[in-house]
Amino acid sequence: MQLQQLQYFVAVAETRHFTRAAEAVHVAQPSLSQQIKALERELGADLFLRARGNITLTDAGEALLPLARRILADADTARHEVLELVQLRRGRVRLGATPSLCTGLLPDVLRAFHDRYPGIQLLIEEGGSHDLVRGLARGALDLALVVLPLPTASPALTTVELLREDLVVVSSPEAPRPGGGRRTVRIADLEGERLVMFRHGYDLRELTVAACRAEGFEPDFAVEGGEMDAVLGFVRAGLGVAVVPRMVAARSGRGLRVTPLARPGLHRTIALAHRSDVAPPRAARELQRMLLER
């Protein structure tokens, strides 16, 4: 049973005339008649009583008519649903990002995406790169903003480098300036400073601790275990200093003193990742394009 056959059947049932039905569906009358006969053969029953100048439905035709109309309506709905997805009028994007990127990079890009495609639902998951890689692997995310290099034993992911971001030191304006008041701070100057530190598994924690150890000292934590907002709040309260991305510091500057790191400084590389074996949905590919062109 084909949708075209049901369409021809409904047209004849509504016009009670084969020629007018053929004109309504823009097909030659012999072709329409052949398709109706093929449908009757498949169903094993006549659908119309054909008397000269008088076409009526049989009992089988009466039973089929509401079902055929419903099937055609559902097919039409399906076509429109898919068309809306293809044209980005509806759909969703599941994007993972570290909390610092949610604070610094994403707000402006997501606002521009939402303005252009208001019917697309944006589902954002915050987490460290390890968690986001696992989310991509199990199909829970379409795209993720991760910090390179990826964790060892990562699944097959396609990554595109998005940006290389400087890290800076933030402190309370009421506290003494780290580094003795110089305009830049060396990593070595953080020895003896009380640090506000992110939770375990946080990319910035690992990067900062590794940089301190490379200078020959273990960092001293005033408080540890927070996410980005908590860390910034603790710094504002004067509990210590923290190393954060420049974009985050720029957006959260109220109540914070921002001091650049002296060359070579600290940097992190952000990449956009998706599974290599599955192409992202159309809406996710469009968000990917906007992120790369930002």
TrEMBL record:
Stored InterPro entries: LysR_HTH_N, LysR_subst-bd, WH-like_DNA-bd_sf, WH_DNA-bd_sf
Signal sequence annotation: none
Family: Belongs to the LysR transcriptional regulatory family.
Domain HTH lysR-type: 1-58
Coiled-coil regions listed in the entry: none
Protein name: LysR family transcriptional regulator
Keywords, ordered alphabetically: DNA-binding, Transcription, Transcription regulation
Keyword flag Transcription: yes
